[in-house]
Amino acid sequence: MSSPPAGVLRAFGVEGPARALAGGRGTSWLAGGLVLKPEAGPVVEELDGLRSGGFRLAAPARTRDGSFACEGWSATRWVAGAEADYAQESTWRDILAAGRAFHRAVAHVRRPGFLAARQDWWARGDRAAWGERSVRFRPEFAGVASWLAGALAPLGEPQLVHADLTQNVLFAPGLPPAIIDISPYWRPAAYAEGVVVADALCWHDARASLLEAVGVSVPAVARALLFRMATTNERDDVPDVRDEARRYERAAAAIGR
Questions:
Q1: Most buried residue, 20, 103, 177, 182, by most Cβ within 10 Å?
Q2: Backbone dihedral region of 38: left (phi > 0), alpha (psi from -120 to 50 degrees) or beta?
Q3: Span 15-65, pLDDT tens digits
């Protein structure tokens, strides 16, 4: 991916050259204390200047003229930190604690208008998981999807949530955890917590006991697994559908299938 153009850097008040960062699907660039990404999606403007407690936030940055985007690029403040060891149960507890602090801090934020217009894989998978659009699952997913649908229950009132916390909470010695790359959805906070546990079960070999250890309910994880699986179902670039199906089956077994 090409680095941000000089005009974009000038617009955000930083100078190049920009340095490519690991992660972020290979599209993140660091320059002058900002992390710039192309086509990152609309910014939740209310996060600019958000007062936080219990976490640090990679807050959105404005251009010199007050905009949150320039030529398709957006930027957030760089924050120090690295991913923790996902093999440790304490890591999941810390990620969820940071997420809970963030969701308390944004509970007052109104629903962003752009959410209704999103049509990416994740938005379509989310709507399918909440029964807002019909979906026909691939044969590899159909059995698990049917069981998950029967394990659903109300999760509370919707609010702005970050529904992709798992690899977007960074840790640094002596500092609160840092939350980056906000994936905004208008759902109950328990749903975002369920996504964390679903990710742990599917891709990080977490034990079934994690749910009880971190206080996340089976219905929350079931809804999150349905979201992840519906998103995979939407994609046309999955290299091994059977492997994905096995992961969802294992996670469903962990929560009681």
A1: 182
A2: beta
A3: 988 999 886 566 899 999 999 999 767 888 889 888 888 999 999 999 999
Residue pair 65/39 in contact (Cβ under 8 Å)? The answer is: no
Same domain, 153 and 217: yes
β-strand partners of 187: 159
In contact, 255 and 226? CB cutoff 8 Å: no
**For the chain, what is the radius of gyration of the CA atoms?**
19
Residues 24, 149 within the same domain? no
Q: Locate tokens 């850097």: which residue? A: 9
Query: What H or E segment, with its residue span, contains residue 77?
Result: strand 73-77
- The pLDDT tens digits of the residues spanning 109-167 come to 999 999 999 999 999 999 999 999 999 999 999 999 999 999 999 999 999 999 999 99
Peptide bond into 17 cis (omega under 30): yes
First to last CA, the chain: 42
Q: What is the DSSP letter of 82?
A: B
CA-based max dimension of the chain: 54
CA atoms of 65 and 208, how far apart (whole Å)? 50
Q: Residue 194's Cα: distance from chain center in Å?
A: 11
Residues 59 and 95 in one domain: no
Cβ 255 vs Cβ 232: under 8 Å: no
Instruction: Kindly report the backbone phi and psi dihedral angles of residue 59, in degrees, each rounded to the nearest multiple of 5, phi listed first.
Output: -75, 150
